[in-house]
Amino acid sequence: MNQSQLQPVIFGGLFIGVLSGLPIISVGNLCCCLWIVGGGMLTAYLLQRDRAEPLALGEGAIGGLLAGVAGSVVYVAVSIPIGIVTAPFQRRMMEFFMNSGGDVPPEVREMFESFGTEGMIVSVAVYFVLYLIAGVIFGTLGGMFGALIFRPSPPQAPPSPPHMPPSPSWTPPSPPVPPSPPVPPSPTSQLESGPPRPPAAAPPQAQAPPPPPEAPPASPSPPSTPEAPPASPPPVPPPPREPNA
After folding, report:
1. What torsion, rounded to 10 degrees, do the Cα atoms 148, 152, 153, 156 define?
2. How far is C-alpha 40 from the geometric centre of its chain's CA atoms?
3. Beta-carbon count within 10 A of 145 CB
4. What pLDDT band is residue 117 in, cutting at 50, 70 and 90?
5. Is 54 exposed, middle or buried, given 0-12, 13-18 or 19+ CB atoms closer than 10 A?
6. Average pLDDT in the 32-57 region?
7. Buried b vs exposed e over 170-180: b needs ≥16 C-beta within 10 Å?
8. In this predicted structure, what is the pLDDT of residue 120?
9. CB 15 within 8 A of CB 35
10. Are the C-beta atoms of residues 150 and 45 closer than 8 Å to each other?
11. Which whole-number Å values give the CA distances from 102 to 93, 98, 105, 144, in the listed order?
12. Residue 66 CB: number of other CB atoms within 10 A?
């Protein structure tokens, strides 16, 4: 066991032993061993505080068991000095009850009279065994309860952003800006510039020459006739034969 686990066990044992050893406050253990269960739950809480992952039930049970054993030891260390301080007061109370009751059996009177330091040591030893057994049982239950109660909740996923509708692509046209009215010339500017001059005539614009007339469409050529074959020359008559002498 490391130091981070030992410190919660010590605090749980101090919680059990101190509250169980005080004379009046120890009555709380009569209600289902309240201080022992509370010490086990305190141990589980301190063990869970030092880690991010949830504490297992087995670890909480072991921590509560060790806190119950430590609480029984602390109870002995606290109850012995308290018993020594309160012993005279307890002896006077027993004497008062014995003197007030006339029919107390002699065996009981002797037992109360012999009750002193030895009787206190015996009672502390008996209570130590009882608290040790109760601490093992109820401290373990308290550690398991604490592991269940103080278990951190799982982290929640961040909420998704709200769905925004797409912005329209068409925007309305802006209204037309009216033309500004003409500013009349001031009298001082008219005096300085003299009488108004007539507007200059615009130079004549050069006219473009007319386009040339379009040529008439060419007539279609007549279809070509096939050429006749060349005429053959007339036959040459044979020369006349001379008569034989």
Report:
1. -170
2. 31
3. 19
4. low
5. middle
6. 91
7. eeeeeeeeeee
8. 72
9. yes
10. yes
11. 16, 7, 9, 52
12. 25
Question: Is the pTM of the predicted complex or chain greater than 0.90?
Answer: no
Q: What is the mean pLDDT of the segment spanning 112-124?
A: 67
- In angstroms, the CA 70 to CA 41 distance is 14
- 64's tokens: 């509560």
Torsion of CA 107, 109, 110, 112, to 10 degrees: 120
pLDDT, position 74: 94
Give tens-digit pLDDT for 162-188: 766 656 566 667 777 777 777 666 656
* Per-residue H/E/C for 139-161: HHHHHHHHHHHCCCCCCCCCCCC
DSSP structure string for 46-102: HHHHT-SSPPPHHHHHHHHHHHHHHHHHHHHHHHHHHHHHHHHHHHHHHHHHHHH-T
Amino acid identity, position 145: F
Best CA proximity match to 143, nearest among 44, 47, 237, 76: 44
R_g of the chain, CA atoms, integer Å: 65
Tokens of 186: 């001031």
Please report where in the chains the tokens 């087995």 appear, as a residue. Answer: 58
Backbone angles phi, psi at 80, to 5 degrees: -65, -50
Question: What are the structure tokens assigned to 241, written together?
Answer: 């034969």
